[in-house]
């Protein structure tokens, strides 16, 4: 069986969408060959393929690593339905999945450091500017934050350093601390390693309606173990929200991007997960930038993890924080420079959060493969472009030199255009 994700686009988003689509099935043992199709030169597709299949080329797991079959599945793996949870503050229920920023390794937390996770402090007005991809929860390990934080950012610190007097701070308990009792009545988090027996932990959590469970596992079957635990929670009618905690020990940013996408994406596509918490050890990473074309600046590890979290949520359509691009990989039918045009359209529309724009190389297959794009830019002859609104043609065979401006005009006519407030593009 051959697996591929077509129209994945380019850059980080193209890699993440491909990894989630293909990797989710590979994780379940489905798929014998794969192809990653990016709107980039073909040589950039192969490393992504190699990173994706690397894990499955290793020998079969030891008997100890196998997970017993479930007696019953409490979710339907053939359709998307989000797991029902009781919200705790803005986590779970119908709230979009929250994003954790892991500052465990940071020596301190400063206002400037929050730039990397979407918050810019403006000293002259003493106000915060909050970006579209701003993290919701700051995990500080044993540190506390003494300056005033933006209202949308909560601090989670270890229960051993937490006290109720700390404003906007919430405790994270270990399994052992949780079993010992003395748990706060308010919002709190509990870290649960599901590599071992988790039944006792779930029984405890069931008695704490304000508990948010952070699930992780430390073996090659970590996604399956977390899925098994959530299935058990569903069977036990435990409706506490769950945070998907995924760690990567991979040596390159490219491999980490793939690992995070597959492990978290596979669960989000099952409707599981009310938040995402990506973590790594920056000292072990050999490169700092994703290979091939990139759109997102990566000035430090916090920024990489934050952007990857939001991109995974965007790719699984569980939380939209930016413009969505659907573009074909191009082929012999392509009637214009697809890569250059895609980059150009991105530059002028990348501030239109939530809008879905398709950029397709030909009129033969392009319109049918635009999926659920709101607007389409499709090659219809040498130097000619046809523009779509949904599946309907709105401008036919216009010259390609004016087509991007015409697309903007159509966005304006449909009241979805917003003038950029900052310089767009990179
Ligand atoms: S140019 Fe047409 S046929 Fe070729 S990849 Fe793009 S949409 Fe598909």
Please compute the radius of gyration using only Cα atoms: 23 Å
Helix content: 25-40%
- Counting helices, strands and paired strands, the structural category is alpha/beta
Largest sheet, if any? 8 strands, parallel, barrel
**Element order: H for helix, E for strand:** EHEHEEEEEEHEHEHEHEHEHEEEEH
Walkthrough of the structure:
This protein is an alpha/beta fold and 426 residues long. The chain has 3 domains: 2-65, no CATH class; 98-315, Alpha-Beta Barrel (TIM Barrel), CATH 3.20.20; 324-413, Sulfite Reductase Hemoprotein, domain 1 (2-Layer Sandwich). Helix content is 27%, strand content 21%. It is built from 9 helices and 17 strands. The strands form 4 sheets. The protein has an 8-stranded parallel beta barrel with strand order 3-6-7-8-9-10-11-12, surrounded by 4 helices. The protein has a 5-stranded mixed β-sheet with strand order 13-14-15-16-17, covered by helices on one side. Helix 1 links the parallel strand 1 and strand 2. Helix 1 (11-27) packs across helix 6 (253-268). The longest helix has 17 residues, at 11-27. The protein is globular. The two termini are 39 Å apart. 43% of the residues are buried. The model has no long low-confidence stretch (mean pLDDT 93). Bound molecules: iron/sulfur cluster. Iron/sulfur cluster is lined by residues 328-331, 333-334, 360-362, 364-366, 369.
Secondary structure elements and pairings:
Elements: E1 2-5, H1 11-27, E2 33-36, H2 45-57, E3 98-102, E4 119-122, E5 127-130, E6 137-141, E7 154-158, E8 169-173, H3 175-180, E9 188-193, H4 199-206, E10 211-216, H5 222-235, E11 242-248, H6 253-268, E12 275-280, H7 301-315, E13 324-327, H8 338-349, E14 356-360, E15 375-381, E16 384-389, E17 392-399, H9 400-413
Parallel strand pairs: 1-2, 3-6, 3-12, 6-7, 7-8, 8-9, 9-10, 10-11, 11-12, 13-14, 14-15
Antiparallel strand pairs: 4-5, 15-16, 16-17
Iron/sulfur cluster is lined by residues 328-331, 333-334, 360-362, 364-366, 369.
């Amino acid at each position: 069986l051959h697996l591929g994700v077509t129209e994945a686009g380019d850059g980080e988003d193209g890699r993440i969408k491909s990894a989630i689509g293909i990797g989710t099935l590979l994780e379940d043992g489905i798929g014998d060959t794969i192809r990653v199709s990016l709107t980039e030169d073909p040589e950039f597709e192969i490393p992504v393929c190699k990173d994706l299949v690397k894990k499955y080329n290793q020998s079969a797991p030891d008997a100890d690593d196998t997970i017993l079959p479930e007696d019953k599945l409490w979710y339907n793996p053939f359709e998307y339905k989000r797991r029902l949870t009781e919200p705790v503050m803005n986590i779970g229920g119908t709230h979009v999945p929250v994003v954790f920023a892991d500052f465990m390794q940071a020596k301190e937390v400063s206002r400037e450091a929050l730039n990397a996770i979407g918050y810019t402090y403006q000293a002259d007005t003493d106000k915060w500017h909050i970006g579209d991809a701003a993290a919701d929860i700051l995990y500080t390990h044993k540190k506390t934050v003494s300056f005033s934080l933006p209202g949308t950012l909560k601090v989670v610190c270890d229960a051993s350093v937490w006290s109720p007097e700390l404003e906007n701070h919430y405790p994270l308990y270990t399994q052992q601390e949780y079993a010992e009792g003395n748990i706060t009545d308010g919002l709190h988090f509990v870290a649960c390693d599901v590599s071992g027996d988790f039944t006792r932990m779930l029984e405890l959590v069931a008695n704490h309606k304000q508990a948010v469970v952070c699930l992780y596992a430390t073996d090659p079957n970590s996604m399956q173990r977390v899925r098994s635990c959530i299935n058990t929670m569903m069977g036990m009618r435990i409706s506490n929200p769950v945070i998907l905690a995924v760690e990567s020990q991979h040596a390159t940013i490219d491999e980490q991007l793939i690992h995070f996408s597959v492990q978290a994406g596979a669960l989000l596509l099952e409707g599981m997960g009310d938040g995402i918490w990506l973590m790594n050890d920056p000292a072990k990473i050999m490169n700092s930038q994703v290979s091939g074309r990139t759109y997102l600046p990566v000035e430090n590890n916090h920024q990489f993890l934050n952007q990857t979290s939001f991109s995974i949520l965007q790719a699984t359509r569980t939380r939209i924080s930016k413009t969505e691009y659907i573009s074909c990989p191009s082929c012999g039918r392509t009637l214009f420079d697809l890569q250059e045009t895609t980059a150009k359209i991105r530059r002028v529309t990348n501030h239109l959060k939530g809008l879905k724009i398709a950029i397709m190389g030909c009129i033969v297959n392009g319109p049918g493969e635009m999926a659920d794009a709101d607007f389409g830019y499709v090659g219809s002859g040498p130097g000619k472009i046809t523009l779509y609104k949904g599946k309907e043609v709105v401008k036919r065979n216009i010259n390609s030199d004016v087509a991007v401006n015409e697309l903007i005009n159509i966005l304006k006519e449909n009241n979805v255009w917003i003038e950029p407030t900052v310089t767009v593009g990179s």
